[in-house]
Design a protein that fits this description.
single chain; 271 residues; TIM Barrel; 11 helices
Length: 271
Protein backbone atom coordinates (compact mmCIF):
# COMPACT_ATOMS: atom_id res chain seq x y z
CA UNK A 1 0.00 0.00 0.00
CA UNK A 2 1.28 3.45 -0.92
CA UNK A 3 0.48 6.40 1.31
CA UNK A 4 -1.02 8.94 -1.07
CA UNK A 5 -2.63 12.36 -0.70
CA UNK A 6 -5.04 14.22 -2.95
CA UNK A 7 -3.62 17.45 -4.37
CA UNK A 8 -5.62 19.86 -6.51
CA UNK A 9 -2.68 21.38 -8.34
CA UNK A 10 -0.56 24.54 -7.99
CA UNK A 11 -3.55 26.62 -6.82
CA UNK A 12 -4.31 24.23 -3.94
CA UNK A 13 -3.96 25.87 -0.51
CA UNK A 14 -2.46 22.59 0.70
CA UNK A 15 1.16 22.71 -0.43
CA UNK A 16 3.15 19.69 -1.57
CA UNK A 17 5.57 20.31 1.29
CA UNK A 18 2.67 19.85 3.72
CA UNK A 19 1.76 16.57 2.05
CA UNK A 20 5.33 15.32 2.35
CA UNK A 21 5.50 16.42 5.97
CA UNK A 22 2.35 14.41 6.71
CA UNK A 23 4.21 11.26 5.65
CA UNK A 24 2.75 10.67 2.19
CA UNK A 25 5.03 9.44 -0.58
CA UNK A 26 2.62 9.68 -3.50
CA UNK A 27 0.23 12.26 -4.92
CA UNK A 28 -3.23 11.83 -6.47
CA UNK A 29 -3.96 14.73 -8.80
CA UNK A 30 -5.31 15.88 -12.15
CA UNK A 31 -4.67 18.52 -14.81
CA UNK A 32 -7.65 20.66 -13.87
CA UNK A 33 -6.52 23.54 -16.09
CA UNK A 34 -7.11 21.48 -19.26
CA UNK A 35 -10.66 21.67 -20.61
CA UNK A 36 -12.78 18.52 -20.59
CA UNK A 37 -12.25 16.58 -23.80
CA UNK A 38 -8.89 18.11 -24.71
CA UNK A 39 -5.82 15.90 -24.97
CA UNK A 40 -3.43 15.75 -22.02
CA UNK A 41 -0.13 16.22 -23.84
CA UNK A 42 3.12 14.62 -22.74
CA UNK A 43 4.48 18.13 -22.18
CA UNK A 44 1.72 19.05 -19.70
CA UNK A 45 1.93 15.71 -17.91
CA UNK A 46 5.71 15.94 -17.53
CA UNK A 47 5.42 19.54 -16.33
CA UNK A 48 3.11 18.44 -13.49
CA UNK A 49 5.29 15.42 -12.71
CA UNK A 50 8.35 17.66 -12.39
CA UNK A 51 6.62 19.95 -9.86
CA UNK A 52 5.61 16.94 -7.76
CA UNK A 53 8.98 15.21 -7.95
CA UNK A 54 10.84 18.39 -7.04
CA UNK A 55 9.06 18.11 -3.70
CA UNK A 56 10.20 14.53 -3.14
CA UNK A 57 6.88 12.95 -4.09
CA UNK A 58 5.58 10.78 -6.94
CA UNK A 59 2.47 11.23 -9.08
CA UNK A 60 0.97 7.75 -9.01
CA UNK A 61 -2.78 8.24 -9.54
CA UNK A 62 -4.90 10.49 -11.77
CA UNK A 63 -8.17 11.54 -10.22
CA UNK A 64 -9.64 12.01 -12.61
CA UNK A 65 -9.35 12.09 -16.38
CA UNK A 66 -12.68 13.80 -17.18
CA UNK A 67 -15.18 12.12 -19.51
CA UNK A 68 -16.69 14.75 -21.81
CA UNK A 69 -20.47 15.16 -21.77
CA UNK A 70 -20.68 14.26 -25.49
CA UNK A 71 -19.23 10.82 -24.67
CA UNK A 72 -21.74 10.29 -21.87
CA UNK A 73 -24.62 11.24 -24.16
CA UNK A 74 -23.20 9.66 -27.36
CA UNK A 75 -23.76 12.98 -29.10
CA UNK A 76 -21.93 15.80 -30.85
CA UNK A 77 -18.19 15.17 -31.10
CA UNK A 78 -18.39 11.91 -29.15
CA UNK A 79 -15.97 9.91 -31.33
CA UNK A 80 -13.46 12.75 -31.43
CA UNK A 81 -13.51 13.04 -27.65
CA UNK A 82 -13.12 9.26 -27.28
CA UNK A 83 -10.02 9.43 -29.47
CA UNK A 84 -8.70 12.31 -27.36
CA UNK A 85 -9.35 10.28 -24.22
CA UNK A 86 -7.38 7.33 -25.61
CA UNK A 87 -4.50 9.66 -26.56
CA UNK A 88 -4.47 11.09 -23.02
CA UNK A 89 -4.37 7.59 -21.53
CA UNK A 90 -1.48 6.61 -23.79
CA UNK A 91 0.39 9.80 -22.92
CA UNK A 92 -0.09 9.20 -19.19
CA UNK A 93 1.17 5.64 -19.58
CA UNK A 94 4.24 6.76 -21.54
CA UNK A 95 5.01 9.17 -18.68
CA UNK A 96 4.73 6.38 -16.09
CA UNK A 97 1.33 7.33 -14.64
CA UNK A 98 -0.70 4.16 -15.01
CA UNK A 99 -3.56 4.35 -12.50
CA UNK A 100 -6.44 6.49 -13.79
CA UNK A 101 -9.78 7.23 -12.14
CA UNK A 102 -12.81 8.19 -14.23
CA UNK A 103 -16.35 9.31 -13.59
CA UNK A 104 -19.39 8.71 -15.79
CA UNK A 105 -22.06 10.62 -13.84
CA UNK A 106 -24.28 12.97 -15.86
CA UNK A 107 -23.33 16.67 -15.77
CA UNK A 108 -21.74 16.77 -12.30
CA UNK A 109 -18.39 15.11 -11.71
CA UNK A 110 -19.33 14.43 -8.09
CA UNK A 111 -21.50 16.17 -5.55
CA UNK A 112 -22.51 16.55 -1.91
CA UNK A 113 -25.53 18.21 -0.33
CA UNK A 114 -23.37 19.93 2.29
CA UNK A 115 -19.74 20.95 2.09
CA UNK A 116 -19.59 22.20 5.69
CA UNK A 117 -21.36 19.59 7.80
CA UNK A 118 -20.51 20.19 11.46
CA UNK A 119 -19.75 17.12 13.57
CA UNK A 120 -20.22 16.70 17.32
CA UNK A 121 -16.62 17.76 18.02
CA UNK A 122 -17.12 20.96 15.95
CA UNK A 123 -14.95 19.70 13.11
CA UNK A 124 -16.41 19.93 9.61
CA UNK A 125 -16.82 17.46 6.79
CA UNK A 126 -18.84 17.04 3.61
CA UNK A 127 -22.09 15.10 3.60
CA UNK A 128 -24.69 13.62 1.25
CA UNK A 129 -28.35 13.50 2.28
CA UNK A 130 -30.77 11.60 0.01
CA UNK A 131 -33.80 13.60 1.18
CA UNK A 132 -31.93 16.81 0.38
CA UNK A 133 -30.98 15.71 -3.14
CA UNK A 134 -34.57 14.59 -3.79
CA UNK A 135 -35.88 17.94 -2.55
CA UNK A 136 -33.43 19.73 -4.84
CA UNK A 137 -34.46 17.57 -7.79
CA UNK A 138 -38.21 18.00 -7.19
CA UNK A 139 -38.61 21.56 -5.93
CA UNK A 140 -35.50 23.56 -6.84
CA UNK A 141 -34.25 22.33 -10.21
CA UNK A 142 -37.76 20.94 -10.92
CA UNK A 143 -36.59 18.20 -13.26
CA UNK A 144 -39.56 17.03 -15.38
CA UNK A 145 -39.48 13.33 -14.52
CA UNK A 146 -38.15 13.65 -10.99
CA UNK A 147 -41.39 12.52 -9.37
CA UNK A 148 -41.62 9.45 -11.64
CA UNK A 149 -38.19 8.29 -10.45
CA UNK A 150 -39.12 8.33 -6.75
CA UNK A 151 -41.48 6.38 -4.55
CA UNK A 152 -44.40 8.13 -2.84
CA UNK A 153 -42.55 7.84 0.47
CA UNK A 154 -39.45 9.51 -0.99
CA UNK A 155 -41.54 12.31 -2.50
CA UNK A 156 -43.28 12.92 0.85
CA UNK A 157 -39.97 12.96 2.71
CA UNK A 158 -38.46 15.38 0.19
CA UNK A 159 -41.53 17.63 0.41
CA UNK A 160 -41.20 17.82 4.21
CA UNK A 161 -37.46 18.44 3.96
CA UNK A 162 -37.95 21.27 1.48
CA UNK A 163 -40.78 22.81 3.52
CA UNK A 164 -38.43 23.20 6.50
CA UNK A 165 -35.74 25.07 4.52
CA UNK A 166 -35.45 28.84 4.67
CA UNK A 167 -34.20 30.87 1.69
CA UNK A 168 -30.55 30.85 2.81
CA UNK A 169 -30.64 27.06 3.27
CA UNK A 170 -32.11 26.64 -0.21
CA UNK A 171 -29.30 28.80 -1.57
CA UNK A 172 -26.62 26.84 0.31
CA UNK A 173 -28.05 23.50 -0.82
CA UNK A 174 -28.09 24.67 -4.44
CA UNK A 175 -24.51 25.97 -4.28
CA UNK A 176 -23.27 22.79 -2.61
CA UNK A 177 -24.71 20.63 -5.39
CA UNK A 178 -24.06 22.57 -8.59
CA UNK A 179 -21.30 25.10 -7.98
CA UNK A 180 -18.44 22.62 -8.18
CA UNK A 181 -16.32 21.05 -5.47
CA UNK A 182 -12.55 20.58 -5.29
CA UNK A 183 -11.67 18.31 -8.19
CA UNK A 184 -14.84 19.07 -10.15
CA UNK A 185 -14.10 20.08 -13.70
CA UNK A 186 -17.12 22.30 -14.25
CA UNK A 187 -19.66 24.30 -12.27
CA UNK A 188 -23.03 25.76 -13.24
CA UNK A 189 -25.69 28.22 -12.26
CA UNK A 190 -29.19 26.79 -11.75
CA UNK A 191 -30.41 27.70 -15.24
CA UNK A 192 -27.42 26.11 -16.99
CA UNK A 193 -27.61 23.03 -14.76
CA UNK A 194 -31.31 22.55 -15.60
CA UNK A 195 -30.52 22.82 -19.31
CA UNK A 196 -27.65 20.30 -19.07
CA UNK A 197 -29.59 17.74 -17.05
CA UNK A 198 -32.59 17.99 -19.42
CA UNK A 199 -30.33 16.81 -22.26
CA UNK A 200 -30.37 13.35 -20.68
CA UNK A 201 -34.18 12.98 -20.79
CA UNK A 202 -34.25 11.12 -24.09
CA UNK A 203 -31.49 8.67 -23.24
CA UNK A 204 -32.65 5.10 -22.76
CA UNK A 205 -31.24 1.59 -22.81
CA UNK A 206 -31.60 1.05 -26.61
CA UNK A 207 -30.36 -2.54 -26.86
CA UNK A 208 -28.58 -2.45 -30.22
CA UNK A 209 -26.83 0.87 -29.58
CA UNK A 210 -25.91 -0.24 -26.07
CA UNK A 211 -24.29 -3.45 -27.27
CA UNK A 212 -22.34 -1.47 -29.87
CA UNK A 213 -21.18 0.91 -27.15
CA UNK A 214 -20.19 -2.04 -25.00
CA UNK A 215 -18.01 -3.33 -27.84
CA UNK A 216 -16.31 0.07 -28.05
CA UNK A 217 -15.68 0.03 -24.31
CA UNK A 218 -14.04 -3.37 -24.58
CA UNK A 219 -11.80 -2.08 -27.35
CA UNK A 220 -10.80 0.89 -25.20
CA UNK A 221 -10.00 -1.44 -22.29
CA UNK A 222 -7.81 -3.54 -24.58
CA UNK A 223 -5.96 -0.41 -25.75
CA UNK A 224 -5.42 0.67 -22.14
CA UNK A 225 -4.03 -2.72 -21.17
CA UNK A 226 -1.76 -2.70 -24.23
CA UNK A 227 -0.37 0.63 -22.99
CA UNK A 228 0.33 -0.86 -19.57
CA UNK A 229 -2.65 0.71 -17.79
CA UNK A 230 -4.45 -1.74 -15.53
CA UNK A 231 -8.06 -0.97 -14.67
CA UNK A 232 -9.75 -3.82 -12.77
CA UNK A 233 -12.61 -1.44 -11.88
CA UNK A 234 -13.32 -0.67 -15.53
CA UNK A 235 -13.17 -4.37 -16.43
CA UNK A 236 -15.64 -5.11 -13.62
CA UNK A 237 -17.90 -2.24 -14.75
CA UNK A 238 -17.92 -3.60 -18.31
CA UNK A 239 -18.86 -7.08 -17.06
CA UNK A 240 -21.67 -5.61 -14.96
CA UNK A 241 -22.89 -3.51 -17.90
CA UNK A 242 -22.95 -6.61 -20.09
CA UNK A 243 -25.01 -8.46 -17.48
CA UNK A 244 -27.46 -5.55 -17.21
CA UNK A 245 -27.86 -5.32 -20.98
CA UNK A 246 -28.53 -9.03 -21.25
CA UNK A 247 -31.22 -8.75 -18.57
CA UNK A 248 -32.76 -5.77 -20.37
CA UNK A 249 -32.82 -7.51 -23.74
CA UNK A 250 -34.23 -10.70 -22.22
CA UNK A 251 -37.05 -8.61 -20.80
CA UNK A 252 -37.78 -6.68 -23.99
CA UNK A 253 -37.06 -9.25 -26.71
CA UNK A 254 -36.81 -12.96 -27.33
CA UNK A 255 -33.71 -15.06 -26.56
CA UNK A 256 -32.91 -15.57 -30.28
CA UNK A 257 -32.53 -11.84 -30.76
CA UNK A 258 -30.27 -11.65 -27.70
CA UNK A 259 -27.98 -14.31 -29.14
CA UNK A 260 -27.91 -12.49 -32.47
CA UNK A 261 -26.85 -9.26 -30.79
CA UNK A 262 -24.19 -11.04 -28.76
CA UNK A 263 -22.84 -12.74 -31.88
CA UNK A 264 -22.71 -9.40 -33.69
CA UNK A 265 -20.78 -7.91 -30.80
CA UNK A 266 -18.39 -10.89 -30.78
CA UNK A 267 -17.77 -10.58 -34.51
CA UNK A 268 -17.16 -6.85 -34.12
CA UNK A 269 -14.55 -7.58 -31.47
CA UNK A 270 -12.86 -10.22 -33.67
CA UNK A 271 -12.62 -7.89 -36.69
Amino acid sequence: MKQSFRWFGPDDTVKLSYIKQAGATNVVTSLHHISNGDVWTVEEIEKRKKIIEQNGLKWSVVESLPVHEDIKKDSGLCLSYINNYIKSLKNLSSCGVKTVCYNFMPVLDWTRTSIEEKLDDDSKTMAFNKEAINAFDLFIVKRKKAKEDLSKKEVDQAKLYYKNLDSSQVENLTKSIISGLPGSEESYDLSEFSKRISEYEGINSGATESFQGLGELKEQLAEMEASGISSPDLAADISELERMLENQVETDTNSDYLETLKEQMKNQGDN
